[in-house]
Amino acid sequence: MKKLSNKQRKNIISSIVGDLETVDYPPKYLSDYLFYMKKRREFALNCYAYAMQFKFDAHDLVYLHETYPYNPGVIGGIKNYKLPKDYYSLIEYFLQDCKVLGIDIDFSTLTEKTYDDEYKIAILLGNDINQITGVPNYHFVRQNSDLTWSDIQCFQGNVCPARVNKPGYKTLEIVKVKKLIRKGD
Fold it and tell me: What is the residue extent of each domain of the chain?
């Protein structure tokens, strides 16, 4: 089974971290809508990439679950990678990606206030098993600067307003993502 090489993974991490240093916190729906609608197919973007504000072109890596960097856990270098199959693996993979990228997160609630240097992401797990992958679907939805929620529908889908209580899914966690600020060497 093909995996990302350490060099590929380091290059992806470096690219994503560079992008995260320049994105808006909290994200702005309209400006991101224009970017993601234009690049969603070309860059092979999904709901995870959109929620996390990743803008790395993953098109050449999309065909294998183990190398597609927008599957939770691939960036984090999870050993013996398999798609997340339940709550525990999905959250573990998400937390590992955040750790590797240097992103601080706090578990939160829908009603907890956010500040200028953070925004919320809802992590959802589907009630049904995906017929292609054999594991439950997962979904990520993000909160924008105007307090609305939005997502990318499926893989390379449209950017649109979203609900945290998405039919067919259960909301597992609400997390606050804090602005990535790199410390000087």
Answer: 6-178
Distances (CA, A) of 21 to 86, 89, 109, 129: 31, 27, 25, 36
* Predicted local distance difference test score (pLDDT) of residue 185: 34
Tokens of 67: 């190398």
Q: What is the per-residue pLDDT across 117-145, written as a single tens digit (0 to 9) for each?
A: 999 999 999 888 887 778 888 999 999 99
Sign of CA dihedral 163, 167, 168, 169: positive
- The reported pTM is 0.88
Report whether 158 contacts 37 (CB < 8 A): yes
Backbone phi and psi for residue 87, each to the nearest 5 degrees, phi listed first = -50, -50
Residue 162 near residue 150, CB atoms below 8 Å = yes
Determine how many CB atoms are found less than 10 A away from the CB of residue 111. Answer: 6
Which pairing describes strands 105-107 and 136-143: parallel, antiparallel, or unpaired? unpaired
Cβ contacts of 73-79, under 8 Å, gap ≥ 24:
73/97, 74/4, 75/9, 75/12, 75/13, 75/16, 75/100, 75/101, 76/100, 77/9
